[in-house]
Every structure is written in C-alpha cells, then in structure tokens.
Fold this sequence. Notes:
Blueprint: H1 3-23, E1 28-38, E2 44-45, E3 52-58, E4 63-70, H2 86-94, E5 96-106, E6 111-119, E7 128-136, E8 139-143, E9 147-149, E10 152-162
Antiparallel strand pairs: 1-2, 1-3, 1-10, 3-4, 4-5, 5-6, 6-7, 7-8, 8-10, 9-10
Amino acid sequence: MTKTAILALLMLIAAMSPASAQRESPLGTWRLLSYHTETPQGIRTFPLGEDVAGIAMYLPNGRVSIQFMRKNRPLFKSGDAWRGTPEEEKAAFEGFFAYTGRYTIDAENSRVTHHIEVCSAPNYVGTDLERTFSISGNRLTLRTPQRQLAGQTSSSTLTWERIN
C-alpha cells in the first residue's frame, strides 16, 4: 500500500469515528419525549404530566446539562418572572428540574454517571447520579435505580430523541 493510500485510509477512519462514536454514546443534544416513574410494584406515574419538554446535552469535553419541565406551566400573575405567590412559586419549582456538571461513561455496563455541580434540587449538588442508558436509532433511554422521590420508592425512565 502506498503512503498516499495509507494516509487516505487514516483520514477516512478519522472522519468516520466521531459519527460512529456519537451513535453509540449519549454524546450530542437530545429532546425529551417522555418521563415516567415506576414503583417496585409496577405502578407507573407521570410526575410532570404526560406532556413534558426538555433538553439534554452531552458535550465531548465531558460536560452534561439536563433540564426538563411540565409543559404549559402557568405564568406568575404579577408579571414578575422572579416573584409569584407562594402557590405559584411552589408549582413552578415542582414543575421543573435541571442540573449540570460532568459525566463519565461505563460503556461496558451501559452506565452514565452525572457528577452534579449545579441543580434545581439542592440535595443533589455535589452528588453523583447514576443512570443506565440504551441507544436505539435516534432514541436515548435513561433509567435511574430505585430511590426515594416525592415520598415514594421508584425508578425513573426518560426517553430522548437526538436533535443534532
């Protein structure tokens, strides 16, 4: 094989690698399609309702940002984006969840760990949130282990669609 052919082959492999790596990892930007929890007894609930919106971003530098919410949350009647009634503020907090930090992947066990630096739920700051993940076509599914959430033991399943 000539040096030119070897160089061309190496360039082709380099050009193809990011795309194939992206298909097999959560790297990229994702839109939330569904979010539900399930108890050990098989009871399924939709904590934010069945109509949710969200974005997850896994960057090549190891950073992650995830945010999701109940669609059509009511506006604060005061018109002030930072001040509502106690009831309005409670509904706004309970209808939105977000965090950012770093992530590590254990590809062999299909696990991703989110190392939380900033979070809308203060108890998660400084913790590690482990999820299993699976990718099928342009769909990413994240599953949490069983844990206490909103007063019950359950696991969460979030299904995302690749948008980049």
